[in-house]
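A reminder before we start the practical. When you read a complex entry, don't treat the lines as separate problems. The point of joint prediction is that each chain is placed relative to the others, so the output describes one connected object in space. Small molecules and nucleic acid strands, if listed, are placed in the same frame. In the example below there are four entries. Take a minute to note the order of the lines before looking further.
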Amino acid sequence: MAKETIAGLAKRLGISKASVSYALNGQPGVSEVTRRRVLDLAEELDWYPSASARALSRSRAGAVGVVLSADPLLIGTEPYSMALLAGIETVLAEGDMALMLRMVGRDPAQERATYERWAGERKVDGVLVFDHLLDDPRPALLDRLGMPFVLHGAPETGVPPAFSGTTTDHAADAATIVEHLHDAGHRRIAHVSGPHRFVHEEERVRGVRERAAAHGMVVVQYEADYALLAGHDAVMTLLRAREEPVTAVVFGNDLMAMGGLLALRGLGVRCPDDVAIVSWDDSLHCRLASPSVTALSRNPGTQGRVAAGLLLALLDTGLVQAESMPHSELVVRSSTAG
Amino acid sequence: MAKETIAGLAKRLGISKASVSYALNGQPGVSEVTRRRVLDLAEELDWYPSASARALSRSRAGAVGVVLSADPLLIGTEPYSMALLAGIETVLAEGDMALMLRMVGRDPAQERATYERWAGERKVDGVLVFDHLLDDPRPALLDRLGMPFVLHGAPETGVPPAFSGTTTDHAADAATIVEHLHDAGHRRIAHVSGPHRFVHEEERVRGVRERAAAHGMVVVQYEADYALLAGHDAVMTLLRAREEPVTAVVFGNDLMAMGGLLALRGLGVRCPDDVAIVSWDDSLHCRLASPSVTALSRNPGTQGRVAAGLLLALLDTGLVQAESMPHSELVVRSSTAG
DNA sequence: AGGGGACACTGAACCGGTTCAGGTTTTCCC
DNA sequence: GGGAAAACCTGAACCGGTTCAGTGTCCCCT
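Here is the predicted structure of the whole assembly.
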């Protein structure tokens, strides 16, 4: 089990290092018979080329980085990110790329520092970036660092796009939800969104407002932070403050929906009879809750696969492109069944 | 922004590559004055040493691997693994190690292939292994590959341990749970465990059986697979089959507990009045359920930190050690409040 | 004054691959 | 049969760090 090297293989076969390298990489310059001999020997010895040597000479790390910035408390409870990650990993593995993961709290400085480090050390070939922000500094930073990236959840911009990204039609999603509530007879609804610094939240807010306006519905906007407690507090505030209360609440993610549900329960407000609930993310939480919660299913796994695919394409061919996500589907459950 | 190298720094400063290297790595052989000049210049240029070059010459990848093997459906819903991962990442980041993540389905062959690849390519310096199995082939495999590893959830073996690992006193955990149920007046209980191929499940089964026997309680064992549906089916089977039914069910994880809860609801059996429920893992699911579910809190974050710490120690000093986990705590909630 | 050790520094080898320029051999065609 | 093109192969340079052996200086001590 002594460490074999390409020079070792070459000596055993009585040929040069160069030939071995060509043979292993499917490059022209070796006869078929030599190539077979090399491959067979490598197989027989369970030999793999050293990742770092290869990375050094190819100037390619063979890895893609992901920085997950989430509140420590939410980590693990956010099914969306995990499913996304799983989707990403599937595609990367197929493309022989490793996934380098870094978890930081919601701390932009640390995320930034991680990118700078990765770029400086050439430790990853590209990164996947989540949660596009208003005036997001990250695209400019990554450009400056010369680090290829794909922004998951980029805004739908002009053609050609300034950078690679996946786009989602949040207005359409908003319409789906609002229509559903309108059909169920709701005329006064609340929208408990995530922080408006996220571009997608801003688009959702606008989407909900516009579609509701088209139907003459009243919308109360409430900005929160995705946490369980925030959903809880939102409902407490919304239901206490208004003399004419809303009859439905749309939550920006499943956790807040759960918090809201708990608040309703605490207040003795029946769901869906008195107040209906919709979550903008589907997950096991929504399936398990009582009542089960109507939710927008956004297929995070597929989204991850698409985003990773874009990054690999960008790295291989330098092709910058924006791909739009398949439409989300509303899974209707008990929380709006009234 | 042209790629600087150590040779470039050396030329700018009019000294040799070697001196620059010594200065950067805190090695003796350079004067304080020179060291400062080097560090200042590196700082000024935002320069970092190339990870692959460093990895090649040091024969150290600077990364640790984790293979997450879970059913795709469960991915993201298993808060335990994610919290564990978060804990691991914290420690690795502090030790300047990257985390390389690979997700595979429950497919031992793929996990094995990943380790072989990582070892052959020297892509990671060590791995963290989860879920110790009966006759687990992985320790032997990793030993053969010369890949340092830490087994999270290793059995409590003799001194000195055969390999590094974290150990949990599952018998004590079992005792905590059984005592709680006994105190609440239960005399016939069921234990819906995960697959017995996991060592920790086997130990839990034995622990529950022994402690229950000590109190003259009856235990019905039921082996399941951690999935939501499995918990559901377990309850259906357990409550239908027995003419004298159990009054409490202990579930091996939170998902199955949720499934069981749904089954009770479907059967019109009240919880905790007719049947009490305990989950062996605490998570948001348990907090959110109605009724909220009594659960054993095992601090996955801490466990991850400890395991990662063991691995770093192993890599640094070669020290093989087993560390036992802090005791778990039972969080009593409504599901056993009757 | 001279011997010896500590210290600062350097050139060159090395880690294990990839790749280029050039050298041989084979093949093909007139 | 001879010349050109194609196919195969090789030595050496290179990627960007680390590290060893050795050179030169300076200082201290007897």
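Discuss with your neighbour: The two ends of chain B are 68 Å apart (CA to CA). What might explain this?
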